[in-house]
Input
Amino acid sequence: MNHLQSQKIRIRNLPLNLVVTKKIHVKPVGMLWLFIVLGVLVVFMRPYLMVYGLILITLPLFGLIVLPDRKLCDFTPKYLILYNQRNRQECMLIYWDEIVSWAYERHPANDLLVVSLTDESTEVQELYSRSSIRRAMEQYVPHKEVKTRKKRNGVS
Output
């Protein structure tokens, strides 16, 4: 079995000068702001649709202000950081050269990023957007994606 540099560490022990190239959060902040802008445009450009415009403003604003958000993962030039651990003060640091393969699995409740490491262990992270993850993973570990077949009624 290989000894890995990848390890579970406390979040407070992450380097202070960490260069993060991409962050993934639970909330789709960009999409929520897009709906707010669309709502404002509807209110000012089509006053007869004001009720719809106010709905387009209010619902995303509620999501931004009231609903909780948390960081799921960070991408850096040296490693991937997964934050969704049982202990919320810990994260998993995975060095890019220790990733054998990765897969994005779709499930009814939530999607999963499954990362296989050189010591034959796997790390699993809940995620909600395949396209953003795929772009970042292809940047750092190209051609290591394992395509999974979509499961229907428990049959693959």
